[in-house]
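Go through this fold for my students:
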Amino acid sequence: MEVQFLLRFVILLGLVETMTACAVLSSYADDKYDYLPALTMNSNRSLVKKVTLIAREENLPPLGVPIDLHRNIGFASVFLRLENPQLISVTVRVTKVEIRSLSNGELQSFQHSLQEVQLKPLENSEVVLQLTNKSGYTAKDQVKAIVTYQVGDITSIIESEPVKVSR
């Protein structure tokens, strides 16, 4: 009699443990799917997270290099921090990069060509755009980068923090 009671107790305990484990897994699965739509959300505006600018001007050539009137004097390095929170690949088209004076908004004479960046699902990336010119910076104060980019049919603009030109 005691053996049958012990056997029933062990079987009942096993069933309770199995049901508890299934309930825990079921609630975990429900929670997991609650977060999934946030990953697949079509959030194009948040792809370019940050723009950082490094601006420098080199009026004199490096030591040992002869003077060349046609060499580059103004340099701008524009760093784009990109994050793709989606489960699909996305193409970011950088259509325009402007360097502007902070005090009067004067456009500095840098040229930039169209650049496309392909982001895989859930990829984080940093892209550096190197801009140069032969005249240097006309701005005597701080400058900022203004980046215009396109994702699908949506065009967005993001600016860097103002920086001082290193001379």
